[in-house]
Amino acid sequence: LAKTTQPISMDSYEGQEVNITCSHNNIATNDYITWYQQFPSQGPRFIIQGYKTKVTNEVASLFIPADRKSSTLSLPRVSLSDTAVYYCLVGDSGSQGNLIFGKGTKLSVKP
Amino acid sequence: NAGVTQTPKFRVLKTGQSMTLLCAQDMNHEYMYWYRQDPGMGLRLIHYSVGEGTTAKGEVPDGYNVSRLKKQNFLLGLESAAPSQTSVYFCASSLLLRVEQFFGPGTRLTVL
After folding, report:
1. 8 Å CB contact of A100 and B4
2. In the list A47, A91, B13, B89, which could disulfide-bond A31, CB 3.0-4.6 Å?
3. pLDDT (tens digit, 9 = 90+) per residue, B61-100?
């Protein structure tokens, strides 16, 4: 079964760049790596997805090295509203279709 | 366009009782998923469906059954609830298996 590891929590200040790394092994070779954001009492919300190298959208960047054993979510200039839990999601190499979420990183942004 | 909806929002069961959680989506998505979320455990996939009439097991399928009789609905059943099934259950749907999933608001289930 694929395994993921994320830091449990991170603190930051408004305006700073935040990088959250997820380590993952035994992931499907043909699968995307996806990141989600979750606020209390809500379902997760899609942030960004990539296969390799770097992907950027209007809210974040995702860096994936060539060996795909980790991925880093980068949030530029965070604000108080970015306080949330962030999850990485990968596909399991041993079971087609099975998706494995990380345990989540609680980001706290302070003024 | 309601997206993904879940019924009920809250439920309290006694050990041994049965219930069904309903998930509905109006985005014409082929893929639907049921997850459970427990403190410190993140989300874990229970079952998923790749289309009407098809289902498959995820990471933690034991104690649950699912059905996808209509494309827009995905039902999660607990035949004999146990306290270990106390959790928040999320349903999600996606156009394809590996792309962006849209999540419902969750169902908070307590089994006494």
Report:
1. no
2. A91
3. 999 999 999 999 999 999 999 999 999 999 999 998 778 9
